[in-house]
C-alpha cells in the first residue's frame, strides 16, 4: 500500500505501521517452539516458556510424581497376613496371644511375623461406644479370619454377624471328631453334638490354650471371614490341639 492510497483511506501513520507489520512475513514461520525459544532475547524467554512449555512440564511432573508414589507405596506396603485372629475384650491378654502366635509360626515354618496377625485389641460392650462398626468392617474386608471372646461375650459376636459356622471352613471328618470330643458349642456357648448347629469351639478343651499362663479358661474360638485363608484356619485349629 503506497502513501497516496493510505491517505485516501484516511489512515494515520501508526495504523500504516501496524498494517506494515501484519503484511510482513513471520520471521519464525516453520520453526519449532524450542528453536524460537532459544532465539528470543533473555527478557522474552520466560513469558514464552510459561505460555508454551510450562503446562506440559507441570503435567509431566504430576504424572511422574504419581508413578513414583505408586511404586514407593507398593514397595513399602507390608504383606497381607496369611491369617488374622482377633480377640475381643481380651486386651489384658496380649502377651498370651503373642505366645500363641509365635508357636503357630514355628509350627508352620513362617518367618515373617507380619504374615500372622494375632491380637486382642477390639472391645464390645453391648451398649454402643465400642468397636462394633470397626470389627464388622474388618470382617467384611476379610481382615479378620477368626475371633476369640470370653464365653459370656460370644453370643454378642454371633448376633452382630462377626462369626461364621465352623462347617463353612472345617472338614466334615474334623467336625465330627470335635463334636465327639465335646469341643463344639452353639451361639450361646452350649455344647452341641450336631456339627450343623455349632458356632464355635470351646477353648477350655484346647491343650495349647491351657498351656499359656493367664489366658481365661472359659473362652470360645470362632471362624469369621475365611474365604482366602481356609487352609491356615484349619491349620490353626489343628495347632490348638483340641482333645
Write the layout of secondary structure elements.
Elements: H1 3-8, H2 13-23, H3 33-39, H4 42-52, H5 54-76, E1 83-88, H6 94-108, E2 116-122, H7 132-140, E3 146-150, H8 154-159, H9 172-180, E4 184-185, E5 200-202, H10 207-211, E6 219-223, H11 230-239
What does this structure look like?
This protein is of the alpha/beta class and 243 residues long. Helix content is 46%, strand content 12%. It has a six-stranded mixed sheet with strand order 2-1-3-6-5-4. It is elongated and about 110 Å long. The N terminus is likely disordered.
Defining traits:
243 residues, 6 strands, six-stranded mixed β-sheet, 11 helices, alpha/beta
Helix content: 40-55%
Average predicted local confidence, pLDDT = 85
**Largest sheet geometry:** 6 strands, mixed
What structural class do helix, strand and pairing data support?
Answer: alpha/beta
Give a count of the beta strands, DSSP E runs of length 2 or more: 6
Give the low-pLDDT segments. 1-6
Tell me the strand percentage band: 5-15%
Strand order of the largest sheet: 2-1-3-6-5-4
Distance between the termini: 111 Å
Instruction: Write the element-wise H/E pattern from the N-terminal end onward.
Output: HHHHHEHEHEHHEEHEH
Q: Please report the number of helical segments.
A: 11
Radius of gyration: 36 Å
**Which outline best applies?**
elongated
